[in-house]
Amino acid sequence: MRERKRVFLFCLLISIFFGCSLAPKYETPPSPVPAKLPYGEAEKIEVLNWRDFVADDNLKKVIELALKNSRDLKLAALNVAQVEAMYRIQRAELFPAINAQAGMARQRVPSDLSATGKSQTTSQYDVTVGITAWEIDFFGRIRNLRDRALEEYLASEQGRLGVRNVIVSTVARAYLNYAADYEQLKLSQETLQSQEETYRLIRRLYEVGMASELDLKRAEALLEATRGDIARFTQAVAQDENALDLLAGVPVPRDLLPQGLKEVKVPREFAVGLSSEVLLRRPDVRQAEHLLKAAYANIGAARATFFPRITLTTSMGTASAELSGLFKDGSFTWSFVPRIAVPIFDARTWAAYDVAKVQREIALTQYEKTIQTAFREVADALSNKVNIEKQLKAQEALLKASQDAYRLAWLRYEKGIDSYLSVLDAKRSLISAERGMVNLNLARMANLVTLYQALGGTAD
């Protein structure tokens, strides 16, 4: 028995401490994008946690509702749990599974087959503890399969963080869209009040012969156009509200909804460093890298199939012809059955090895493509950030000029210097400038959210 224990422990120690790995050494692939981001800042500053990035308290509560109730996030979490369990299963293959067995067998032997020449009935009872077909991992096949499962688990975790990042960004944009459409609705309602007063004034002037019917109809046309805008933005606000309810998973309390874009606190600004290495923290990039590492480990497992596989089956226990004799002196029994399988010719192993190498190239290409996509998204967001700021300055000047033009046109009309057509054109320009200002403010805030998402953000 002592000799058997020594052999078993010797095999176990060799497997755990001296088993080799045939996987190729992993080295981080060179970045397929420029080393510097366009419009980046000289000093690198870490991206804020989303709770710090989102400045509006009501928006934070809506995002928390979405994170709590999102079915997509629940599916991602369940996928992580499933892959983690698969990793534990694969890791357990490194260690022997010990089983206890108890059995009874009765057999009748006819006289012509019996050694004594007489028929007889024999019985056997046994109780054993042992290991069945445990593979000793000399060449790292199981270790590489374990490493592959680990990298797939880590990739699924990054996928979950990516889903969280998408949820935070999507809810923030939907919230801002709701606020902007509500702002446009309020603007249309204020315009309607102004147009109704103007229409009543011109109608009175028309009734006393001081205004033409053409002026009256122009005022009426602008009035009806404004009513159409109210209906359009009322519909948009309702659709935005439905979108928020869907994202949150529950009806969003009305007191959390903004009454206009001006009421929403602008997301906090953050600096972006010049180095494109900032892209490597994106969840999708990390996920792609873990899958690339898994492909490397899979090559090691495929290579190990070209080498012998050694399995061990062993047991010890008691056996007796009588149930009462199971634990008597002399009933001890043991077995030690090592097996070695040496591959000589199997075309499937070569094909599997080729598949593993192609899968590594696919994973490498996907990793590089993910980085390129990330670079473009960040570069676009940074470019938009610079251009939107320029557009906002121009739009502010345009809005002020449109307000002055409308005021002067109205004064000229009141004094009879100019026709109502000038007032109408000035009013339309003013409405367009006001709407453009709302849209640009929305674009500025939404672009900050897009930039935050493009840089990967932080999950918690």
Describe it.
It is a single chain. Helix content is 62%, strand content 11%. α4 runs antiparallel to α5 (141-207) and α5 runs antiparallel to α9 (420-454). By secondary structure, the chain is an alpha+beta fold. It folds into 2 domains: 20-94 and 137-172 and 239-307 and 349-454, Outer membrane efflux proteins (OEP); 98-135 and 311-342, Outer membrane efflux proteins (OEP), CATH 2.20.200.10. It has helices at residues 2-17, 50-53, 57-69, 71-92, 141-207, 213-248, 283-304, 347-414, 420-454, and strands spanning 98-109, 120-136, 309-320, 332-341. It starts with a helix and ends in a 6-residue tail after the last helix. It has a 4-stranded antiparallel β-sheet, with helices on one face. It contains 9 helices and 4 strands, in the order ααααββαααββαα. The protein is elongated. The mean pLDDT is 86.
